[in-house]
Write a structure and sequence with these properties.
The complex is a heterodimer of chains A (about 400) and B (about 60). Chain A is built from eleven helices and 18 strands. Chain A is an alpha/beta fold. In chain A, about 35% of the residues lie in helices and about 30% in strands. Chain A has three domains: about 180 residues, FAD/NAD(P)-binding domain (3-Layer(bba) Sandwich); about 120 residues, D-Amino Acid Oxidase, subunit A, domain 2 (D-Amino Acid Oxidase, Chain A, domain 2); about 60 residues, no CATH class. Chain B has a single domain, classed as 2-Layer Sandwich (Alpha-Beta Plaits). Chain B is globular. Classes of the chains: A alpha/beta (about 400), B alpha+beta (about 60). Chains A and B meet through strand 12 and strand 16 of A and helix 1 and helix 2 of B.
């Protein structure tokens, strides 16, 4: 690690890795600092991603794919099972990744392209000059080093502190944190090519419970519930344990992973003077699905692209970096977040009876295409009232 | 004050994201509680495992 880079990236997840790789490909110097001693561990993720999402950045590689999905299953509160299969038999709709290998691959690609990487290295404070971010103080094995940079890209995840230290409020509202636990379970009876989502206020209040296959008889079995529904005796772990006891009583848990997923709106502003915020730290997780891998990669890459332009022009002010903020909000991802935020807000207000009604009605339709968007469109078609709730946004769905 | 049950904590950072004071920080496998913690208990509520507890000071 040197003491000056064009771009300093805080965090070695998908957002940070894509930011650093993009930066060096644009001819800049960049360094990723990762506080954990290993890239990719611990995994705090259900690991699902759409196949189009991954292809935008790289060709899928069996080394970091645990399983290929051909469909999804939704289980309504009354136990009704809605199966959604891809139109073409056997065609893939998505993947369940192996994030330990996937994250390492991304960082390795960034390193191979020329980025520096420092693990067990924590950003302990920003270097601020008259309110402008000029780098960070990096702690490694108890020693603190100042690392200067033209732009700092904060990709420090759900527990992000860096932007907060720079004066940006990143606090997630209690009701909009998904308090989560996941077990990697093996020796369980599952459909190895379909993700399963369980809905209902008894199963997962204001969230959902998932079974995402990772191969034969193995899956990520996890749950996220709203922070406001969490409390002593009724925490995410309590709900998950109850489900597992009932559904997979003989399964074996080989990994135990707690976590938090934000389902709030993204930060009001994702840039500052010399600072850009990406991925989970920017709160750009899809509020409906809780998915954040694609959004992290997308914002990481875009941030570095805009940073390179701004560094080239010698202006890394907030005003100049705003191009990044404006661009992601106007993107397909930005629009999907806004739309899905409203859908989420609608769905969490529904009773189990209403959820049953919605799922039963959608199941009657023979969905030819299979994406979150098509599903949402169908939900609206059978629930015209939602159209009113969504207001102007609804127009974009027609 | 806020007590961290280190035997229960899974070092996930869920609590850090909701702390209105910015008083929590996840330092690898160690959750640090800063002096500006107001013992509001928001973190204890959202913890997926129940690792945090607000205890009355004697």
């Amino acid at each position: 690690m040197k003491n000056k880079y064009d771009i300093l990236v805080i965090g070695g997840g998908p957002a940070g890795a894509l930011a650093a790789k993009t930066a060096v490909e644009k001819g800049l110097s960049a360094c990723i600092v990762e506080k954990r001693p290993a890239i990719g561990a611990p995994v705090r993720c259900a690991e699902g991603i759409g196949q189009d999402g991954i292809r935008e950045f790289m060709e899928p590689d069996p080394r970091w794919i645990s399983a290929e999905m051909t469909g999804a299953t939704v289980v309504s509160p009354d136990g009704f099972v809605m199966k959604l299969e891809s139109e073409l038999a056997g065609s893939k709709v998505g993947y369940v990744l192996d994030r330990k290998f996937f994250d390492r691959e991304l960082v390795w690609k960034a390193a191979e392209a020329g980025a520096d990487v420092a693990v067990k290295s924590r950003a302990a404070a920003p270097i601020l000059e008259n309110g402008v971010v000029k780098g960070a103080k990096i702690e490694y094995c108890g020693k603190i080093t100042s690392v200067h940079a033209d732009v700092v890209i904060a990709a420090d995840g759900v527990e992000s502190k860096f932007s907060k230290w720079c004066g940006i409020d990143t606090t997630v509202p209690v009701r909009e944190i998904m308090s989560s636990v996941q077990y990697v379970m093996t020796d369980i009876d599952i459909d190895e090519h379909s993700t399963v989502f369980y809905l209902g206020n008894e199963v997962a209040p204001e969230g959902y419970l998932w079974v995402f296959p990772k191969g034969k008889r193995t899956a990520n079995v996890g749950i996220g519930i709203s922070g406001r529904k969490s409390g002593e005796g009724h925490r995410a772990k309590d709900y998950l344990d109850r489900f597992v006891k009932k559904t997979f009583p003989h399964g074996k848990t080989i990994e135990y992973i707690p976590g938090g997923v934000s389902v709030c709106r993204p930060l009001a502003c994702t840039v500052g003077d010399g600072l850009m915020i990406t991925g989970d730290a920017a709160r750009v997780v899809d509020p409906l699905t809780g998915g954040g891998i694609y959004n992290a990669m997308y914002t990481g890459k875009l941030a570095a692209t805009v940073a390179a332009e701004c560094i080239g022009k010698g202006d890394v002010s907030k005003k100049a970096l705003m191009k990044y903020d404006k661009e992601w909000r106007a993107s397909k991802m930005g629009k999907a977040i806004e739309r899905n935020y409203h859908i989420k807000e609608y769905l969490i207000r529904q009773s189990d009876d209403k959820l049953n009604e919605i799922i039963h009605s959608v199941a009657k339709l023979n969905l030819k295409e299979f994406t979150t968007l098509t599903l949402v469109k169908e939900i609206i078609r059978v629930n015209p009232k939602l159209m009113l709730d969504l207001g102007v946004l609804a127009a974009s769905l027609r | 004050m806020l007590k961290v049950h280190r035997d229960i904590c899974g070092y996930c950072g869920c609590c850090v994201s909701v702390c209105p004071e910015g008083a929590l920080e996840l330092i690898d496998a160690y959750l640090s509680v800063e002096k500006n913690c107001t013992s509001c208990g928001v973190c204890a509520k959202v913890c997926p495992l129940g690792a945090l507890e607000v205890v009355n000071e004697k």
